[in-house]
């Protein structure tokens, strides 16, 4: 099945040109609104432009079962935040929202939390940033509202849910004590500063990060910025210039987002690195304007680069930007990654609690591409070998990889399998082959792939796993012309059929609303990045199938 001339598969180049132009036209990036973050801003900053729109967003986003967010454990944090925000609005004097509607929605959310066995054996809690701080802080706020709420028929309820099994308030108390002491605050905590409480926030030594346009952000987070302002009397209408700069940041966020807010904003370097590297890896020609190239060079700093203003530098953003520069013809020694090296792997940021296979796959991409283009030194080759072995050791028995920064194993498996195929050497062939087998076995009857349902994003990752590990030269200006026979581990039945079915289904899914699958305090959708993955898969699959057809008798 070759792509039809002039049909859906033929407009990839034009769409890519528009996408690259959009990286400059919308420099803050495209990120979906977060029920969690929006709930925090509703509660903390009712004075901010678009407050009524944020309340309406929460009411409209409530699921039929009373919860918010996606399925399973990922629903806990957004549901707690939305319930607390609606309770705060219910008690707020002068609210223009219907109190009966607020009470009913909050009561339904509370009931969903009480009936749902979150954190139990059947519903494990996901590895979300600061979840062990966010959950107890929100439960305290909810209990406070219910204790102080006015009596009457509109009362949302009398008690909130308890802590999930295995979670306590000890770490939250410790963090709040640190903040209240006036001691230096670890930068990784600032992104979730809203957990601190009013007294600790008033005493803490957190300085907003300056931004262009006389703005400043706290942890690149609307919620953290709103919390920082809420602890400063009069900051909503006046106050020192630093407070005015944070207000300008919040107003700029809601002006771009239309009221509801994302968890992290802006995401300039993060978006540009992922988008440009994924386009080039798929073999799509990219004419990157000088301004985009200059922004990618932020990753050349010796301490690495951060995703957004006020966030700590991280190996993920740094490595992807370096990889993008190399694929665009400008390889640089990855000096900004050395601070993240540990004895076994690379941490996402210094002080990380946990580890990320995809971060290390991206670091492998950066070092591997540098060695391929520049030769490098023995220490560069040693990193390539070390990370390849580490990633192989983390592969699940079924052939997949999980990761803490994305809810879908199809993302992590694509990152790890493609990096190992490119740079892991012959000893990685077995791991790559098992990944291909897992992808082939996970295809849905309609041709798509997905953890909870078939999605364009996950189908794109699956197709790229098959097409960029199937034969030598898969990442090139033209996809491999040979038959699709799987990985070096041996021939497998059906890869061409899987690609054909997946390509056909991806053409149908490409313009449908996409669910949030990327992990922050809440799940989010980085729209441009996901669109890039889809376009790359369409380009690879369309050209590969066309070439296979032309070689057929």
From TrEMBL:
GO terms for molecular function: magnesium ion binding; terpene synthase activity. This is Type B diterpene cyclase. One of its GO terms (biological process) is diterpenoid biosynthetic process. Transmembrane segments: none annotated. Residues 145-166, 469-498 are annotated as: Disordered. Pfam families: SQHop_cyclase_C. InterPro entries: SQ_cyclase_C, Terpene_synthase-like, Terpenoid_cyclase/PrenylTrfase. The lineage of its organism: Bacteria, Bacillati, Actinomycetota, Actinomycetes, Streptosporangiales. Residues 361-458 form the Squalene cyclase C-terminal domain.
């Amino acid at each position: 099945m070759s792509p039809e001339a002039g049909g859906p598969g033929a407009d990839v180049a034009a769409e890519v040109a528009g996408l690259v132009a959009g990286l400059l036209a919308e420099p803050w990036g495209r990120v979906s609104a977060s029920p969690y973050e929006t709930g925090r801003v509703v509660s903390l900053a009712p004075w901010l432009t678009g407050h009524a729109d944020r309340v309406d967003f929460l009411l409209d986003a409530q699921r039929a079962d009373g919860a918010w967010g996606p399925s399973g454990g990922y629903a806990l944090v957004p549901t707690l935040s939305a319930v607390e925000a609606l309770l705060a609005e219910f008690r707020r004097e002068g609210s223009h929202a219907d109190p009966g509607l607020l009470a009913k929605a909050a009561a339904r959310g509370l009931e969903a939390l009480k009936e749902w066995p979150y954190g139990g054996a059947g519903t494990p809690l996901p590895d979300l940033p600061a979840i062990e701080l966010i959950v107890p802080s929100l439960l305290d706020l909810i209990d406070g509202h219910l204790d102080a709420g006015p009596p009457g028929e509109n009362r949302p309820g009398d008690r909130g849910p308890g802590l999930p099994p295995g979670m306590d308030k000890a770490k939250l108390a410790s963090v709040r004590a640190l903040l209240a002491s006036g001691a230096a605050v670890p930068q990784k905590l600032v992104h979730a500063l809203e957990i601190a409480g009013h007294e600790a926030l008033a005493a803490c030594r957190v300085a907003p990060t300056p931004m262009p346009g006389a703005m400043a952000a706290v942890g690149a987070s609307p919620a953290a910025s709103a919390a920082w302002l809420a602890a400063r009397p009069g900051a909503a209408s006046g106050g020192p210039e630093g407070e005015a700069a944070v207000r300008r940041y919040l107003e700029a966020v809601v002006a771009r987002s239309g009221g509801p807010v994302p968890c992290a904003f802006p995401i300039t370097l993060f978006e540009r690195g992922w988008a440009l590297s994924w386009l080039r890896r798929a073999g799509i020609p990219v004419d990157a304007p000088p301004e985009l190239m200059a922004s990618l060079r932020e990753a050349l700093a010796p301490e690495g680069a951060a995703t957004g203003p006020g966030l700590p530098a991280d190996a993920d953003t740094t490595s992807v930007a370096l990889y993008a520069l190399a694929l665009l013809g400008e390889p640089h020694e990855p000096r900004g990654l050395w601070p993240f090296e540990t004895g076994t792997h690379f941490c996402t940021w210094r002080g990380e609690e946990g580890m990320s296979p995809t971060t290390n796959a991206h670091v492998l991409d950066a070092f591997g591409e540098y060695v391929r283009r520049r030769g490098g030194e023995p220490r560069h080759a040693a990193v390539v070998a070390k990370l390849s072995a580490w990633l192989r050791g983390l592969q699940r028995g079924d052939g997949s990889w999980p990761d803490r920064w994305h809810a879908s194993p199809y993302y992590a498996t694509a990152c790890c399998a493609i990096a190992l195929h490119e740079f892991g050497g012959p000893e990685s062939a077995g791991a790559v082959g098992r990944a291909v087998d897992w992808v082939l076995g996970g295809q849905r009857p309609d041709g798509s792939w997905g953890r909870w349902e078939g999605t364009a994003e996950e189908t794109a990752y699956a197709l790229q796993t098959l097409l960029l590990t199937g034969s030598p030269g898969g990442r090139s200006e033209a996809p491999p012309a040979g038959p699709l026979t799987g990985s070096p581990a041996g021939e497998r039945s059906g890869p061409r059929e899987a690609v054909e079915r997946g390509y056909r289904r991806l053409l149908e899914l490409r313009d449908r609303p996409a669910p949030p699958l990327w992990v922050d305090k809440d799940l989010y959708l980085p729209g441009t990045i996901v669109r890039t993955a889809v376009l790359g898969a369409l380009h690879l699959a369309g050209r590969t199938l066309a070439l296979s057809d032309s070689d057929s008798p």
